[in-house]
Amino acid sequence: MELVLEYDPDAQKLEELVSNLEQGYLVRRRLDLLTGAVDIACINSPESTSANDTRLINSFGPEYRMLLIGAGQLTQCLAVIAVQSGFAVTVCDPRSEYADGWDMPGVAITREMPDDVVSAFQPDLRTCVIALTHDPKLDDLALLEAIASPAFYVGAIGSRRNSALRKSRLIEHFGQSEDTLKRLRGPIGLYVGSKTPPEIAVSVMAEVLAIKNDVALPPQATVGQWKSSKTSEFTSVE
């Protein structure tokens, strides 16, 4: 193990680093080992620590966060996988019949209205927001807040029909457009033939991780695209 000790580091540079982290930015810190000079820059993806005789480079960033709207069975399954994948998970559900029964160590629970929670959450580049209630009164306003944020993933559970209806509502009643809703994912998940809550959770988490890791997904990998392609094939045969 090799240690680097910085004597009397530049306090202003440390404050700049902390400020960027508090705002949700990922930061590269470059230390000149010969002079002690520090350079800080915001970056889009984590970089491995590197060092040689003249410099040390580290990347620092806030933890990945997942905000789940709705405290049903699917949420429980998804939260377990997300925590094991390194996400800090928060569940939001103002409905007492769901929130009262929530008991999962390591996962925060809030009963506030989802749109208020998203606003207070201040989603950043390491945040994903997923609506799982099937209830427009809870999902729609929260999704509006989320798509206006830098969150790397915003999605909602539902069939292709329900996803289309959701977009229509947001366009008709909330002044959105096809362009502003491009970031809203739905149906969410990668197609794995999932039917049960645990299988659907795997499907959704697979898509989240692919987007997080900047993996280019084939057009038919997602649930919506795969089902659309199969519908087209069936129509063509008919």
CATH superfamily of the largest domain: NAD(P)-binding Rossmann-like Domain
Strand proportion, as a percent range, falls in 15-25%
- Main sheet attributes: strand count, strand direction, barrel closure: 6 strands, parallel
Helical percentage: 25-40%
Number of strands: 10
Oligomeric state? single chain
Shape: elongated
What is the CATH architecture assignment of the largest domain?
Answer: 3-Layer(aba) Sandwich
Would you tell me the overall average pLDDT?
A: 89
Terminal CA distance reads 68 Å
Give your account of this protein's structure.
With 238 residues, this protein is an alpha/beta fold. The chain has 2 domains: 11-60, no CATH class; 65-218, NAD(P)-binding Rossmann-like Domain (Rossmann fold). It has 8 helices and 10 strands. The strands form 2 sheets. A 6-stranded parallel beta sheet has the order 7-6-5-8-9-10, sandwiched between helices. Strands 2-1-4-3 form a 4-stranded antiparallel beta sheet, covered by helices on one side. Mean pLDDT is 89; it is low at 234-238.
How are the secondary structure elements laid out?
Elements (H helix, E strand, L loop, with lengths): L10 H12 L3 E7 L5 E6 L6 E2 L3 E6 L4 E5 L3 H12 L3 E5 L3 H4 L8 E3 L3 H8 L5 E5 L4 H12 L5 E4 L3 H15 L9 E2 L11 H16 L10 H15 L1
Parallel strand pairs: 5-6, 5-8, 6-7, 8-9, 9-10
Antiparallel strand pairs: 1-2, 1-4, 3-4
Helix pairs in contact: 2-7, 4-5
Quickly describe the structure.
The protein is 39% helix and 19% strand. The protein is of the alpha/beta class and 238 residues long. The strands form two sheets. It has a six-stranded parallel beta sheet with strand order 7-6-5-8-9-10, sandwiched between helices. Strands 2-1-4-3 form a four-stranded antiparallel beta sheet, with helices on one face.
